[in-house]
Amino acid sequence: MTINSDADGVTWIEFSKYKIKNYKVDQIDLFDVTTEGLLNLPPDFDEGKPLFHKYHCISLLRNAANYHSSQLLPFLDHQFGSLKYPDRWLRSFDSLLHLNKTYFLSISSKDKYKVLRRCINERLTLLNNMVREEGAKYSASTEDRARFNMKKVKEDLKSVRGFENKKNILLRWRADYFQDVEENPKAKFIRDIDIEIGYITATKNSIEKESKIEKTIFDDSAAQLASLLGQLLKAENKNGLVFRGSTNPFIKAVCNAVTDNDGKPFVENTIIRNITEFNAGTLSKKNKIDLDFDLDTDKESP
What is the distance between the alpha carbons of residues 261 and 281, in angstroms, rounded to a whole number? Predict the structure, then answer.
């Protein structure tokens, strides 16, 4: 499943089979998908051209948005009625709707979106039941299996943003494999997909956990923060240095908890480099902030 997007705000996919009519020359029936209303249509109308996948997707979304809810099932039946693998078309259309939910809702209603997704699920369930009742299955050809490789999956992942969108793409590939090739959770392709889903989920959880930590704002530069930390790390009492052992965990903790005025965290390596310059006496004087504190608690008060 190839996924593309452009400045029109529509994410379009390439249907393996589809029907679209040129309203200028073809007879148009009620549920036909047509080019009517499309701008910048190439003069040499040809449904075989790759660009026409985009026009087909836009037309599908617009047509579905314009039909009454009671017409959505007949609309779907008309689209896949003559196809060899109608379930593939339905799953592609379901993916198209999901990827363009914002666009669809901008030209239609939330209720119609829900009805349309429900109609697709009803038709998929019906088709699956018919296959089981007849005791037949679609045989997975070598061509079918070749469609499922991680290179294509990763190309799809690059085309969308956001953890949820990427996860949904992976789940769609997973479902397509089960339905088009074999229902085998131990298949290598499925294991690779599950690894990607696990990585995306872990990364999302880590970022969300990090974002929930309350931050402290430091209203100055990284060099000046390093100057303060350098002085703290060199502070002494009667027993010697107040901070002992490795300083890297301390610096890392500060960088995780402190941001600049724009909410950006300070880079740990930058702070370490500036502290090194501070200790060597090469940190610019304009970046130094002198602290005046006495940690010797045993000294008598005046």
Answer: 27
Q: What is the pLDDT of residue 192?
A: 92
For strands 216-217 and 3-5, give the pairing.
unpaired
Question: What is the sign, positive or negative, of the torsion defined by CA atoms of 34, 38, 44, 48?
Answer: negative
pLDDT 10s digits, 77-93 = 887 776 777 888 888 88
138, 169, 193 — which closes off a domain? 138
d(CA 142, CA 144): 5
Range of the domain at 59: 1-138
SS3 readout for 45-87: CCCCCCHHHHHHHHHHHHHHHHCCHHHHHHHHHHHHCCCCCHH
CB atoms within 10 A of CB 77: 13
Which residues face 4 on adjacent strands?
12
Whole-model pTM over 0.70: no
